[in-house]
Design a protein that fits this description.
It is found in: Cell membrane. The protein is mainly α. The chain has 13 helices and no strands. It has a single domain, classed as ABC transporter involved in vitamin B12 uptake, BtuC. Helix 1 runs antiparallel to helix 2 and helix 2 crosses helix 11. The longest helix is centred in the N-terminal third of the chain and has 33 residues.
């Protein structure tokens, strides 16, 4: 089976997950409800369609960002959380929740504060790695930012003025697509689509970097430009996703691992499949959130952790078994 057929099958799987996302929920919506004459059409068009769109964009952004970062850092365990953008965006959103900052500074809102956090992370990451072309420095700088932002987020929650703000911040940090609507899609989509398009341009440089930094330079790759492209694309795509949904992990880590045996280890060959696979996985996980027993919905971040942790435990056992042979 050649690559084109595999891509078409993956695209078909993604479309099937979109259809599942539109139909699944505490109230299943049959095909008859997908017409303007049915009263349930309002549920489809006002609730399910924006949620499916946001889920597909979020998954595509996370899956693609994971594939790009694993290629850039030449580390299969890298994902968008490594560079600290998610943590800094979460810090901005939690600050707006805890201190009620959404109504000041020109009505910047929670989305604006989260994007300000992501933008600050991008700027700091660029400054900290401005004179170093090694991906190792990139990882160290990202780890520092993620750790500092995580600590400040915990500090803000600790000094929150009331328990309602604490509950709202913790609920938001778990990540969810619940109650997200057209306004959220319109806010986040331009940044997520822009970041995705930027990241899709990195394929050729990542292929050259896979041969080593010296070989990449000899092939004409500009590593400084590549670093800024990775920072910009990941910051826009992941930062906007975190700003409207909260922190959703494991997508960028799991999807490239699942697709590498099917599409090969060459970084450029994994970019588009990872975007499609990330969208399919996120939509499937969000459908599971709605189908879980109980009156409420399980948070998307919780479901992704329940999927991702056993996946990597299996990977650990497989690699450990190879070491003992």
């Amino acid at each position: 089976m050649n690559r084109t057929i595999r891509l078409l099958l993956l695209a078909a799987l993604t479309l099937a997950m979109v259809a599942l996302s539109l139909a699944a929920g505490k109230q299943w919506l049959p095909w008859e409800a997908w017409t303007g004459q049915d009263p349930r059409w309002a549920i489809v068009i006002e609730l399910r369609v924006p949620r499916a769109l946001l889920g597909a964009l979020l998954g595509a952004s996370l899956g693609l960002s994971g594939a790009v970062l694993q290629g850039y850092l030449r580390n299969p365990l890298a994902d968008p959380t490594v560079i600290g953008v998610s943590s800094c965006a979460a810090l901005g959103a939690v600050a707006s929740i805890v201190f009620g900052l959404g109504g000041i500074a020109g009505g910047l809102g929670q989305f604006g504060w989260a994007m300000a956090g992501a933008g600050g992370a991008m700027a700091l990451l660029g400054l900290l790695t401005a004179r170093a072309e090694s991906p190792v420095v990139f990882v160290l700088a990202g780890t520092v930012l993620a750790s500092l932002a995580g600590a400040l987020t915990a500090f803000l929650i600790s000094i929150a003025p009331n328990p309602y703000a604490v509950a709202e911040a913790i609920d938001w940090l778990m990540g969810a697509l619940t109650d997200r609507g057209t306004t959220d899609v319109m806010l986040a989509a331009p940044f997520m689509v822009g970041g995705t398009l930027v990241l899709l341009t990195t394929g050729r440089a990542l292929d050259a970097l896979a041969l080593g930094e010296d070989a990449a330079r000899s092939l004409g790759a500009n590593l400084a430009r590549l670093r800024w492209t990775v920072v910009l694309g990941t910051g826009l795509a992941v930062g906007a996703g975190v700003a409207v949904t909260g922190v959703v992990g494991f997508v960028g880590l799991v999807v490239p691992h699942l697709l590498r045996p099917l599409f090969g280890a060459r970084p450029s060959a994994l970019l588009l499949p990872s975007a499609l696979g990330g969208a399919a996985l996120t939509l499937a996980a969000d459908s599971l959130c709605r189908l879980a027993p109980g009156a409420g919905e399980v948070r998307l971040g919780v479901v992704m952790a329940l999927i991702g942790a056993p996946f990597f435990l299996g990977l650990l056992f497989r690699e450990g078994g190879r070491q003992w042979r």
